[in-house]
């Protein structure tokens, strides 16, 4: 579904990603593990059109999307849940969700918008109770649900998540990964970047380890979680 080949990205002074190549197969949860500053957010921003690659290809369903604008990429069916959630705090939960469906609202497709809202509220019933509440008053876990819900409003085929576990209690993190697994089981493609490697690898089929902008290990997630190098570096064992 997503093929990344020899991808380089930079903020101006030298590359931060040094030739990443990996595949994200359709209908599965794929994990990218890395410490602070490894380049996870840079990779997510480059895939979702917020940054242009300096070299290499990002192919989505066979088409090179590297360098396309973020809005085009959303329309093609990719949605990013950004690091730190980035919900619009003064806006209500309902308004935040609507922003995720702007492409349907722009063409006045209120039916599609309504059906996406029904889907999101069935997935996160807590959000339904809070639709009229400003997003800034939600708990961290609820804000993460809202950020995921907002991304799902665009009806993506590929959901990208940048550190969804950040700052959340372990129980909430497990619930979020359970939901992501359910989405993958329904056929959605899910690509998660995380520092929290154990819970991520336990829910993923394939995993990759990123260090200083380079992939250093790739394999079945169940094998990576047992790999002594991963245990030492990322699981604190
Ligand atoms: P974190 O978990 O801390 O967000 P990360 O793995 O997502 O880490 P990135 O945010 O992609 O890492 O950062 C990779 C490298 O790029 C780091 O060395 C970082 O300092 C640098 N970097 C990130 N954003 C910028 C920016 N806007 N301008 C310049 N350098 C940046």
From TrEMBL:
It comes from the Bacteria. One of its GO terms (molecular function) is ATP binding. PROSITE patterns: ABC_TRANSPORTER_1 (PS00211), ABC_TRANSPORTER_2 (PS50893). Residues 2-237 form the ABC transporter domain. SMART domains: AAA (SM00382). Keywords: Amino-acid transport, ATP-binding, Cell membrane, Membrane, Nucleotide-binding, Transport. InterPro entries: AAA+_ATPase, ABC_transporter-like_ATP-bd, ABC_transporter-like_CS, BCAA_Transport_ATP-bd_LivF, P-loop_NTPase. Belongs to the ABC transporter superfamily. This is ABC transporter ATP-binding protein. The lineage of its organism: Bacteria, Pseudomonadati, Pseudomonadota, Betaproteobacteria, Burkholderiales.
